[in-house]
Automatic annotation (TrEMBL):
Domain of life: Bacteria
Hydantoinase B/oxoprolinase domain: residues covered: 10-535
Name of the featured protein: Hydantoinase B/oxoprolinase family protein
Length: 655
């Protein structure tokens, strides 16, 4: 798009139409919120967009989920490739295919062409997460799936409405492959009709401004974003940056972290990512398809350009070489990919954060907590009919510390910054699961000059259920949320069952189909964010405030920050800062901490098993990773984890 072409629109008309496109998409979203049947979609696990006649994204809404927006243009283009000229007014198409640019099978998109006469000028699209799409476990999140056949129904581009008429047989086929056909049919209708709201708004603009003006504005909006980003790049250094992040493991390989490698180049042509060298696809569902991998690159980069709208103009500047199919970042059919969101997606985003923290140090940010889903599904025995239920939960957590301030506490995951925490009252009404606790976890924020934001802990107890199983999609039980520039890690993820009883068991951060019965109790934390800067340089007064606020305990203030604080009257938040003792303790820690990272890991693991050391001692002081339930040392993982601590933390400590 050239400046001359843009000047066909006067500045005022361009701004009016650009913002009107956002409004049209937001109205589509509001319609979904008011008519959806699924509690998951009601908690804002959906996104919408307006695409042009070629399928390019013109505008997203103001509260959409990052991963969805970055894939909607791929799915719109897939529909165009499939149906070509066989598209008519009143048609609505459905697609969820991760191998055609989608996310995972639960995310079902509906796409409606917008006609003016016989001409298509654009497409209205929305994507919503269906609570179940079939597969081997309720909720369709089977960690053990190696191929997509165990993950649920794959919807290649398919026509659901033809010239305004619902194709009942097609719709029935789709919803009958889910565990909740009634809810799925409700969402199908809600999403399809929502696209009509966007269509109505665009046609209203056509009536007022004319079709050519609206079409020109669609392209101008993309050109505007492209020019804006390219201009910003002229103010940044050119060069090449590299980093690596990890998945916890691959069940088909020996114990050890699974690398996701990122190289970024800024040159005269834009921003280019190269992911070649990342690991082969893993034998679980923590793989990413090409659409979601590109989305992670878009979303991670966009974080450092917060004022720039996101549309296909942005995608013209950000390009990628993701390598051949068969890797963890470009899995391809038929590799299982449902868990990409907790796997490569947020690893890519956080790795990009680390790279851009070097390019834009004034916006530096450490690693954020990992997206996690806990699913409990089975038969609801509270009624004689015993219908299927899906208790489908995700948590907020802590984001990484930033250049000049602490990380955000209890914030939505990177994957979906627009996600809302599901209301406990609604969950308890819909499912036989009673929430027992939901609180901020002290000491979960990674220590640093700036502290990582704190995560949460949530627990529940099964009540009247039958034939029920639990599944968990996460990661970072071993590749713990990390700090940068001397900052320390957060806490490992994972689910504990019946903690504090004789039946206590650590289930880990990825599992599926674990049988549960009434009375079983579970609890899991979300991690906090990583720290930024040497924690021994944090202002002791700030540590004192953290203790008063309940973000840091007295013990970890001493161990992690070297700050000695004496309680005077904790009920009145009265504490005394020991200035002399703090100086002495910090000198002692500074002299010993490099040696701690070289302590024999077998000795450290034995001290953990004996109770002498705890989980935070291992991940922050000694750099040792074990099975958090049994205390068994993970030797390969520990070696890799220590290498990361040396690079991201120790190398930046003051001597």
């Amino acid at each position: 798009m050239t400046l001359t072409e843009t000047e066909e629109l006067d500045a005022v008309t361009f701004e009016v139409l650009k913002n009107a496109f956002v409004t049209a998409v937001d109205l589509m979203s509001e319609q979904i919120m008011r008519t959806c049947y699924s509690f998951v979609i009601y908690a804002r696990d959906f996104s919408s967009a307006l695409c042009d006649a070629a399928g390019n994204t013109v505008m997203q809404g103001s509260a959409d989920i990052a991963v969805h927006v970055g894939t909607l243009h791929f799915q719109c283009k897939a529909v165009l490739e499939e149906f070509g000229s066989d598209i008519h007014p009143g048609d609505v198409f459905a697609i969820n295919d991760p191998y055609r640019g989608g996310t995972h099978f639960n995310d079902v998109s509906f796409i409606r062409p917008i006609f003016v006469g016989e001409r298509i000028i654009g497409y209205a699209q929305n994507k919503g997460h269906w609570a179940d799409i079939g597969g081997t476990v309720p909720g369709s999140f089977d960690v053990n799936a190696k191929e997509h056949f165990g993950e649920g129904l794959r919807i290649t581009p398919i026509r659901v409405f033809s010239r305004g008429k619902l194709l009942h047989d097609v719709a029935q086929l789709l919803v009958s492959n889910t565990r909740s056909p009634y809810i799925s049919m409700g969402d199908l209708n809600a999403q399809s009709e929502a696209t009509a709201v966007c269509e109505r708004e665009i046609l209203r603009l056509v009536d007022r401004y004319g079709v050519e003006t609206v079409v020109t504005a669609m392209e101008a909006a993309q050109g505007y974003v492209e020019r804006l980003v390219r201009h910003r790049l002229t103010e940044l250094p050119r060069g090449v940056w590299e980093t690596v992040d990890y998945l916890d493991s691959d069940p088909a390989r020996p114990e050890g972290l699974i690398p996701i490698k990122i190289k970024m180049t800024i040159d005269g042509d834009g921003i280019h990512y190269d992911l070649r060298g990342s690991a082969p696809a893993v034998a679980t569902f923590l793989n990413s398809g090409y659409g979601t991998t590109h989305s992670a690159l878009y979303a991670g980069t966009k974080t450092f350009f917060p004022d720039v709208p996101l549309n296909s103009g942005f995608y013209r500047v950000v390009t990628a070489e993701i390598g051949e199919e068969g890797t963890v970042v470009n899995a391809g059919w038929p590799y299982a990919v449902t868990g990409f969101c907790s796997g490569p997606y947020e690893k890519l985003m956080n790795g990009i954060f680390e790279i851009w923290s070097e390019v834009m140090p004034e916006r530096a940010m450490a690693c954020a907590f990992n997206l996690e889903y806990l699913l409990v599904g089975g038969k609801d025995a509270r009624t004689p009919e015993r219908p299927y239920f899906m208790w489908y939960d995700w948590m907020a957590g802590g984001w990484g510390a930033r250049h000049n301030r602490d990380g955000s506490e209890a914030t939505s995951p990177l994957f979906g910054a627009g996600l809302a925490v599901q209301p406990v009252e609604g969950q308890e009404r819909l499912s036989p699961v009673l929430t027992s606790e939901h609180r901020i976890v002290p000491d979960s924020g990674g220590p640093g000059r700036q502290r990582g934001g704190c995560g949460l802990e949530k627990g529940g107890t099964l009540t009247d259920c039958h034939a029920t199983v639990m599944s968990y999609c996460c990661d970072r039980a071993r590749s713990v949320t990390w700090g940068i520039l001397g900052g320390l890690p957060s806490v490992p993820h994972g689910v504990w069952m019946n903690r504090g009883t004789e039946d206590e068991k650590f289930l880990g951060a990825t599992f599926s189909g674990v049988p549960v019965v009434p009375g079983d109790a579970f609890v899991r934390p979300s991690a906090g964010g990583g720290g930024l800067g040497d924690p021994l340089t944090r202002d002791p007064a700030a540590v004192l405030e953290d203790v008063i606020d309940g973000y840091v305990t007295l013990d970890r203030a001493r161990i992690d920050y070297g700050v000695l604080i004496h309680p005077v009257d904790p009920e009145l938040d009265q504490y005394e800062l020991d200035v002399i003792g703090t100086e002495r303790t910090r000198r002692c820690i500074a002299g010993k901490r490099a040696d701690w990272l070289r302590t024999d890991p077998h000795e450290v693991a034995a001290r953990y098993r004996s109770g002498e050391l705890d989980m935070l001692d291992l991940v922050r002081q000694y750099g040792v990773i074990v099975d958090w339930g049994t205390g068994e040392l993970h030797e390969n993982t520990t070696r890799q984890y220590r290498d990361l601590l040396h690079r991201r933390s120790e190398a930046h400590w003051e001597r």
